[in-house]
Predict the 3D structure of the following.
Amino acid sequence: MSAARTPGARQHLPLLYPVGMLTVFFVVPFAIMLAVSFFQRVQGGFYEPVATLANYERFFSLFFANVLGFSLGLSALAAAICVGLGFPFTYFLTRLARRRQVAWLVFLLSVLSLSEVIVGFAWSTLLSRSAGVSNLLVALGLLGEAESWSPGFAALLLGMCYLAFPYTVLLLYPTLARLDRELVEAATTLGASPLRAFVTVVLGVARNAILSGLILAFVFTLGIYLLPQLLGRPEHWTLSVMITDQAVFQSNLPFGAAMAIFLMLVSLALIALTLLLGRGRDRSAA
Amino acid sequence: MSQLELRSLVKRFGATAAVDEVSLSVPEGEFVCLLGPSGCGKTTLLRLVAGLEEPDSGSLLLDGTDITGLPAHRRGFGMVFQSLALFPHMTVAQNIAYALSIRGASKADQRRRVEELLRLVQLPDLAGRQLGQLSGGQRQRVAIARALAVDPRLFLLDEPMSALDAKLREALQLELRLLQRRLGVTTLLVTHDQLEAMTMADRIVVMDGGRVQQVGSPLEIYRRPASVFVADFIGASNLLEGRARGEGRIELPGGTITVPDAPASGAVTLCVRPESLRLVAADKGAENGGAAGDGLSGEVVFVRDVGQTVETHVDCAGQRVIAVAVPDSVSDGGAPFAQGAAVRVEVPAAGCRVFPA
């Protein structure tokens, strides 16, 4: 019996590697953060391991509620824009010749190689009064005089969408590329106008990809913490900015950790809600 | 349940004409098969009728009304695609009810019609199933039911059976034919399988190179092919190269035969079905005497005896001739000829078609 068990155990040996890496680099740091969020801050120092809920209590204020609300709203809006633009974009992309598709995908992937810092500074320059695109519009006679569009809410939203858009497209691409064109034709022969066929068949088949795209863009933009400082005003600072501020500049690690945990719980709850709604519609339709 | 007429339809893709001046008239309630090798334009022709492609020239008439410019979703045709194109995110019932829901039918009406259609295609009680839970044959029937949901004016099928195994395909062909007869719906089916076409069609349209090669009933096309291409494509044929010698006499390797309507001179191709040929032992043919002059002599090189039929390959002076017979009539004694036997192939003039080569 032991002879039979040994090779089985050995077969599972390679699994130890990912499990070990995950433990060392994810579970342990996360556990530390979770623990720290319940510790007490030492003014001018680090923290001491005294169990307290003070960090979470401090969070329940109108100020942080507003910041949280703004962060979630901004990310939701950015996710909606990314999928709203990304879906038709990807749909038409998959209808192009193979070579053109590859060119577009390579371009999108190369955008991913730009860091948040570079993208932030590039957009703040492009949207500035002295060197921005408004000068071009003035030259074309479309605008009276050069304007500054950054910092501002629109600039921040634009920057976030710019970062999340390639991910959204790459996530939608496989589903839409595999979509059988005969499905749309079948809908047409059954009496659906082209628009109706698109809504009932293409959107229907791609529903899961759309949901994943929304969640991905939402979670991704929620973690962006440099752009609000580069492209937004202080009132546009998101919870991620606050967490960085507390952890790095105020050296209040316990409060930063508490906010991070809370943000994570809220976004998990929202994702669960989204999935539940998605599945609920599926079941009622069946 | 309508009469369809195609007038000189042309559809080009780049420089090649996929459909080249096709004219065809399909009477009400008829089952027509478009038959041809892949790339012959049969699917493009069907897509033109469905409105999924626009013709470069020519026109389409349905009951005398020009529908050439009518978009596909206003034609009211039912179509079954080669891939079936069932909507993967919908249940069986939702798939079948799709056309009804587009037309705004009430939920109760939809449910009633779905049940009716599922009974029609012999799949009761499957309405709530997901597509993944169905077998290939069941999916096939769902696709047929979906296309028939709103009593289509025209029923179009594009190689609908190509994904099924042979036994299931045969059963469904028969079933589909009976269903079509019961509903009386004018039907166009595309296939490359000549047996499928012969099983189901009232009329077969043989296509090649974007053009119609022959239109006729299955038997007409089988017995009187209009060209060497049709003779070769439909069923098995012996295509024998020879020379016309006048007065209907044709000189072939291994002998000369007489076919009344043969051309007076020049190179010809003689088409004759394997089952039209009769084999007799060489010495017996000579004894009878009368048979001499309208047969070919040769040597048996291969015998495929599958019980139901016996296929005998005869080498007649370098040209291979295949004869098929039911066992008892293969030879005088009832037993197949042995390999190497000298035989005489009797070629009856009635079974022959002669084309200038």
Chain B has nine helices and 20 strands.
